[in-house]
């Protein structure tokens, strides 16, 4: 019997949580899974908390305030106890009925991660336009082989998250992060449903945060273990530019030009040389910081108020 934890972050989803819980429960029982359902309330201000406390079976995590979807996802994953983990949004747009085929595909292809691909999205034009632009940029920077990294419907092996903490808007880039760690990632086309209750939580703030985290994932993939390579390269470039400006200054001096009338070349020489040295220093400091980072515990960026486990009698 396969065992699976279903992790669902929820935020102001009072009209969706009960129905979604029932769908997840029916899916798990029909598939014959040993399962647990984990809802993480990310500081909702509506009736989501009261409704979640009536649902059974449910492991319910209540945040003290709104810490964001990634923090909620991370808390749910850390609270999971089963062999496999499935994540999905709390708005009801992801279909729990897709989980069995994703899990079967994972086992068949021996993947560690299977991500959902919302090929036919039921979102507004603007949301789809922004998502496609973000996916194109992500393809250039991260290139994890996933068409729709923003889809929250994903299935993982529990072992994928050993020693991993999620921050910012990194839930969108979990496949890329795990691929960096050496895990095998696959993708399956899934059903995407129109929202029937509540309001979307996506806005331009989250788009900007997602872009910044994309740069972070790119840097982590390329240079996290060797930051001196990129900063040292910039240091060499600036020193070369400083040398070129120095030659320019010498040539002007030999040609009889007064330095008081051509002050820009000497200033650029000094500027680029200083920048080059600073880049090398920053690179060396970053190397030291990375060694410290990998050798110390990182504090959690969220705070759990309460964990409630509702079991069926």
Q: How is the secondary structure organized here?
A:
Blueprint: E1 3-10, H1 17-31, E2 34-41, H2 48-52, E3 58-63, H3 69-79, E4 84-87, H4 99-109, E5 113-117, H5 125-141, E6 154-157, H6 174-180, E7 185-189, H7 204-223, H8 227-254, H9 264-294, E8 304-310
Parallel strand pairs: 1-2, 1-4, 2-3, 5-7
Antiparallel strand pairs: 3-8, 4-6, 5-6
Helix pairs in contact: 5-7, 8-9
What does this structure look like?
By secondary structure, the protein is of the alpha/beta class. It is elongated. It has helices at residues 17-31, 48-52, 69-79, 99-109, 125-141, 174-180, 204-223, 227-254, 264-294, and strands at residues 3-10, 34-41, 58-63, 84-87, 113-117, 154-157, 185-189, 304-310. The protein has two domains: 3-223, Alpha-Beta Complex (Spore Coat Polysaccharide Biosynthesis Protein SpsA, Chain A); 227-294. It has nine helices and eight strands. Strands 7-5-6-4-1-2-3-8 form an eight-stranded mixed sheet, sandwiched between helices.
């Amino acid at each position: 019997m396969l065992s699976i934890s279903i992790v669902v972050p929820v935020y102001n989803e009072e009209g969706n949580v009960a129905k979604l819980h029932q769908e997840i429960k029916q899916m798990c029982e029909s598939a014959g899974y040993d399962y647990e359902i984990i809802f993480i309330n990310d500081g909702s201000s509506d009736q989501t908390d009261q409704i979640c406390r009536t649902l059974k079976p449910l492991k319910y995590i209540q945040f003290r305030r709104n810490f964001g979807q990634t923090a909620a996802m991370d808390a749910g994953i850390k609270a999971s106890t089963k062999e496999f983990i499935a994540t999905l949004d709390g708005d009801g747009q992801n279909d729990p009925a897709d989980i069995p085929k994703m899990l079967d595909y994972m086992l068949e292809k021996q993947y560690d991660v299977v991500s959902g691909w919302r090929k036919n999205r039921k979102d507004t034009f603007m949301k789809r336009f922004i998502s496609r632009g973000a996916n194109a940029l992500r393809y250039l920077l991260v290139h994890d082989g996933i068409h729709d990294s923003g889809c929250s419907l994903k299935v993982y092996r529990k072992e994928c998250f050993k020693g991993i903490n999620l921050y910012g808007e990194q839930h969108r880039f979990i496949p890329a992060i795990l691929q960096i760690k050496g895990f095998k990632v696959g993708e399956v086309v899934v059903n995407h449903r129109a929202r029937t209750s509540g309001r979307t939580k996506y806005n331009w703030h989250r788009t900007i945060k997602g872009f910044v985290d994309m740069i972070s994932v790119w840097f982590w993939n390329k240079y996290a273990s060797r930051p001196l390579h990129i900063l040292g390269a910039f240091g060499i470039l600036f020193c070369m530019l400083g040398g070129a400006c120095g030659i320019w200054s010498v040539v002007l001096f030999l040609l009889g030009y007064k330095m008081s009338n051509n002050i820009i070349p000497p200033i650029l020489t000094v500027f680029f040389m200083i920048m080059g040295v600073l880049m090398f220093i920053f690179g060396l400091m970053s190397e030291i910081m990375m060694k410290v980072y990998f050798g110390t515990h990182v504090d959690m960026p969220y705070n759990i108020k309460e964990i409630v486990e509702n079991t069926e009698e």
